[in-house]
Design goal:
Blueprint lengths: L4 E3 L10 E3 L6 H9 L1 H13 L3 E2 L9 H13 L3 E6 L2 E6 L1 H7 L3 H15 L4
Antiparallel strand pairs: 1-2, 3-5, 4-5
């Protein structure tokens, strides 16, 4: 996992989370993060929202601690950005970074996830 990190740019004195810089995001890490069904569900929800969502806005059939783990993996691998707004931890896709590094990857993954959901009757 990359060690180069940048902060979210949160104001001084507020809580901030570490994120990998664009340059340190690696394809293998992104693919690992997207390979888990719960993490893919999170990414699909964020893409559909076209903006930030609170962790609680995305319902997952797992415990709160497991949800926290999945969000952390996505953040640490450069797929999402998390920022505190008050007491809420808001999540957004790092679409610009992913599109710049791996053009078309995110759109193809989202399209494939939608096709799979329809095929399996989950859509």
């Amino acid at each position: 996992m990359p060690t180069d990190t940048t902060s979210t740019g949160a104001p001084s004195g507020s809580r901030s989370l570490e994120h990998p810089s664009r340059e340190s995001i690696r394809l293998a890490d992104v693919l690992h993060a997207l390979a888990d069904p719960m993490r893919l569900r999170i990414v699909c929800a964020l893409a559909a929202a076209e903006g930030e969502l609170n962790c609680a806005d995305i319902e997952l059939p797992v415990s709160k601690s497991t949800c926290t783990h999945h969000f952390r993996v996505l953040r640490e691998h450069g797929v999402i950005q998390q920022i505190y707004r008050g007491t809420a931890k808001m999540n957004g896709l790092r679409r610009d970074d992913l599109d710049a590094l791996f053009p078309g990857l995110l759109d193809d993954v989202l399209r494939a996830a939608e096709l799979q959901a329809r095929r399996l009757g989950e859509a």
